[in-house]
Input
Amino acid sequence: MRLFGIPFSPWTEKARWVLDHHRLDYTFQEHGPVLGELRLRALMRQPTGRMTVPVLEADRWYKDSFEIARHADGLGQGHRLFPPERLDELAAWNARSEVALAAARAIFLLGSVDQPRFLDSVLPPGVPAGMRPLLRPMLRRGMESLIQKYRMREDTGRHESVVTEALDALAATVSLERPYLLGAFSYADIAMAVTLQGVSPVDEAFMPVGLGGREAWSQPRLAARYPGLIQWRDALYAKHRRPATA
Output
């Protein structure tokens, strides 16, 4: 199997966590925004339509985190993460995670696209300092294309409330004493744990922070509102996620 994704993407992390949980053998292929998309379209024979990652190449193409995770859960020999009797609840938590992640991504990009320091972080380390201001307009156009692709400016004033709605629901259900949404570790826990990546990134031993570093991905006001959830997320990672270097 071959997984195409972005190392610091929470969506990619959802898929990788399940694949790794079941200790399945797969190759990870890092996806790039332009050449990577052209290559992936050719491999998938999909010349038009929206192209997103992660996608998994296996007996067929699996095209989003949830689909990849369900496929992996059917292959693995370990503890099942999709309990059949709780699938409706699990799907509801995943849907909550999806909208919250999209809103967190919008907060991150809309808050970063005009920051020279962030734009410079996108460049390879070897680019001379004197060249960076000249390249920033091109980089900004690239970021704006992502903003347009996912229509991030349409609900600018609602993004934070979407995140807090999801995290309030999570905080009402789990704690360090009650660590699992469905009574035992499941994909629902994974989906909601990665939602906190745009609030306070997890330790980089588990996954990289991504463009702009920890500061760009952190939301101090939200982190201060949900310290218990951050502790819950960290405990879940420590117990159920192998470090990326393992």
